[in-house]
Amino acid sequence: MPNADQKSFYQRTDITGEPYEPMQAPRFTEVATFMRTPLVDSLDGVDIGIIGIPYDGGLTCRTGARYGPREVRNESTLMRAINVATGEQPYDRARVADLGDVRFNDLFNLDQAINDIERYFVAIAKTGVRPLAVGGDHSVTYPILKALAPRYDQPLGLVHIDAHTDTWPAVFGSKFHHGAPFRLATEEGLIDPRRTVQIGIRGGQNFADGLDYSRDNGMRVITIEEFDDLGWQAVAREAKRVVGNGPAYLTFDVDGLDPVYTPGTGTPEAGGITMREAQRLIRELTGLDFIGGDVVEVSPPLDPSGNTALNAATILFEMLCILAIRVSNCRSG
Ligand SMILES: [Mn+2]
Fold first, then answer.
1. What is the distance between the alpha carbons of residues 129 and 131, in angstroms, rounded to a whole number?
2. What is the H or E stretch that residue 327 is in?
3. Closest by Cα among 288, 267, 266, 282 to 321
4. 167 CA to centre of ligand 1 in angstroms
5. What does DSSP say about strands 156-161 and 220-223: parallel, antiparallel, or unpaired?
6. Distance between CA atoms of residues 213 and 127, nearest Å
7. pLDDT tens, residue by residue, 63-82
8. How far is the CA of 75 from the centre of ligand 1 (A)?
9. Model pTM?
10. Of the candidates 220, 123, 245, 122, which has an alpha carbon nearest to the alpha carbon of residue 165?
11. Ligand 1 centroid to residue 276 C-alpha, Å
12. Domain 4-332: which CATH class?
């Protein structure tokens, strides 16, 4: 599987002229990029691009997610080049790079921030690079979907892991907030609600507003109680049935996990998914046609232990593994 092209992609030269591979170096060394992949300023030759979105203007509650990308980069240096559980080696299958962060022209203007994010993902989508985004709060997924969905002849399917449905109407005077991306995406035909599954749902202000919207529009809502009854394997089967064939997007809000794993998040809800369940669930989603994904709502200032960012980086690695399988399958046939 590894070829010379992929190998040279990960090689670097240091200031003495010595060639080396950062991913083979001790994990406490080097500038922290996502998964120790090369930081690039061009999309040429990239299959999967991991990009930070240091934006949290859409938060309705506890803040700090703007620091998410930086801290996930740091903890992601602990990830290995192999998925020990599955044997997957994503860097043999695909050229993975750190694309840096989305830059904002007008950080304090929510409506403008959406355009800034969309602009980056339009650039990515044009090249066929599959993006893996790291937030930032969940409002960032709406402009990502705005950029990606028009490339396909049908609305995207969605696997959405979260404690909240994120289908709420406007709050505090704005329809762009972290509890609304999938209502906006449904209204604009970016996602197909009948090919959307929401997993781990258990909370939210005016709970019924979001839940009713999701169900009335045909989304498959799997509450945490149903998740508990079915188990991760059956939930994965159900997600595959709902999403079916056709392009799909994977979005993971770390508050879908129990707060023991991810206390550093904007709106924690007790009684959530375990890390082990989440890892096995994601692995089991292999085969769906994911065109990209994101991990959002990591707020490092709310968890100085770094555990939230470590678990987010681990989820990101699992997502990278299934995306890399998709890339190499598409390449070979
Ligand atoms: Mn949430």
1. 6
2. helix 307-332
3. 282
4. 11
5. unpaired
6. 34
7. 999 999 999 999 999 999 99
8. 21
9. 0.97
10. 220
11. 19
12. alpha beta
